[in-house]
Structure formats: C-alpha cells, structure tokens
Give the backbone structure.
Amino acid sequence: MADVQRRPLLRHLRGAPTTYVRHLRRGKPVHEGVGVSFWFRPLSAVISEVPVDDRELPLLFHARTADYQDVSVQATVTYRIEQPELAARRLDFAISPETGAWRSAPLDQVATMLTESAQQHALTLAAGMALRDAITAGPVALRDAVSAGLAGDARLADTGITIVGVRVVAVRPEADVERALQTPAREEVQQEADRATYERRALAVERERAIAENEMQNQIELAQREERLVARRGQNARRRAEEDAAAAWVAAQAAAEREKLAAATQAENRRELGAAEAEANAAHLAVYRDMDPAILLALAADTLAQRLPEIGQLNLTPDLLTGALARLAPPRDDAPPAPRARTGQAAPRGRA
C-alpha cells in the first residue's frame, strides 16, 4: 500500500519498489512507473497501484478420478503481474487518494481467476486417471498440466499475468479409502516385520544352540581332562605304592641284614665271652684244685650264704656245735667222728 501524506489542498504519494503506480488526471497519465513519488490534487487525481512482485497463491480443491473416487489436491501457484499497465486497465487497482488503500479487492479477482483456471486443468486430467495412478503419478502430471494450461490461458495473458511456477504438494484420497489403500502396504510391512522377528528368533535359537553345543563340548573336554587327571593320579598312586613297597622291602632287607649281623655279632660275642668265662672258670678251678677241703667248704658255705634268702631264726644243737668246733680244731688220730646236724630236730630256740 502506497504512503500518502496529507497537506492542505495537496497530497503526496510515495510508492514502493515493488509496486507500479499510475496517476491519471483528466484521463491522461501524469505519473507512472515503479517506485515513483509525486504531489497531486485529491479532487482531480485517479491513481492505480499494481504490485509487480512474485506472489504465491495456495490452492486446495477436490477432483474425481476415472474410478469415481474423490481426491483432494493441494498445490501452490506462483505468479507475477508482468505488464501492470494492462492489469490496471483490465482490473480495478484504484486506490483512495486520502488513505492509499484499494477501493476494491483486485488481488482477490486475480486469485479467483487463477484458481478456476488451475482447477479446470487439474479436474480434466484427474478425470482420466485411476485412483492409484492419481496418487502415485498424479502430482507430477497435475503440475505439468496446470503449468501448461495457465501459461496458455489467453485471459491471463491479456491481463498481463505471468505464471512463475506451479507446485503440487499432495494428492490424497478420502480417509477411509486411504486407509484401505494403506492396508496391503501395512500388511506387507507387518509381514516383513514378522519375518524379521522370526529370523531374529531363529538366529537367537541358533546362537543358543551353538552356545549349548559349545558348553557341552567344553564339558566333554573337561570330563576328558578330568578322566586323564584321575588316570594320572591313579598311576602316580600306584607308582608311589610300588616305590613305597620297594622302599619297605629294601628297609626290611636292611633290617634283616642288620639283625643277622647283630645276631652273628652277639653269637660271636657270646662265644668269646663263654670262652673267656671258661678260661676264667678253668683258672678258678685250677686255683681251688690244690686248696684244703676245709677252706673249700668254708668258701662254699659263704657262697651259699650269699645266695640263700634272709634267715630270721637259726636253731643250733649241741651236736652241731660240737662237730663244727671239732672241725676247726686240729685233727687227732684217736678222736671219735663228730655227729652230723639233723634238720628239723627240736632244740631250744635262740636268736641268731
């Protein structure tokens, strides 16, 4: 919108770099061009303002396919008023000299004209396409058809409007039809997901089986090693027992040899001792052989007394004392023989 400044009896208009302004006075152009500024009288001036920048028009309309299915088309048309002087003559772009606003809605007329023309070409093309073709190949085909149709529209050319570009964003069927069309794809995707799940489970089972086999193989290997260990321990135990038995046999032989040697030594010692004792006894007897019998008797009595047990009481009879005293005295030829002592004869008791 142009910027209009008010002064007494005069107005000043300042245009924009994207708008074409045309000032008529008495039916003749006084000022025209893009980005112009000028003074004018409000009572005699007729001013038109035409935008020359690129503008986008969003479109949303319904079409019917060859199989009688309703689809919605979402598109965008980019246009530009290439010849604003023609547009100013064909459409009402007049502005108020007081405010600078359009007196009518010229851009709405342009939008209606473009929408109806684009819909006509899109509906014509969609009527000859099946639903699946319209959904899959429809955006490109509709874009080309609308672009060609708008570019060849004589009314747009006479108005000075140029089509910069057409974009078809989406071609969508009704919600229930779209869900029905999506069902096979969803089922296929679900089947792929199930297949992936089954394959993953099968792979997991295979891995578990491999792990179980590996564990079993490890257990077998451990059992074999344990068996070899037990056999080795048994061999070691047998070898240890054999070595112990051999050592015991050697020890027994050594003990037997020692005992045999000790017995031989002891026998030799005894023989030597017996010989020594025999020689001593022979020497002792040789000493006693020429000794007086009375002395021998006294020695025998002494030896007997040393070997007899302790005597608490001793009974002596007169006959025994007489005989003993007689033996101690020197022998006489005319003396009678002394009587012998009798054991167990009653006699007066006395203390020894």
Notes: The chain is about 55% helix and 20% strand. Residues 25 and 45 are 5 Å apart (CA to CA). Residues 175-289 form the longest helix (115 residues).
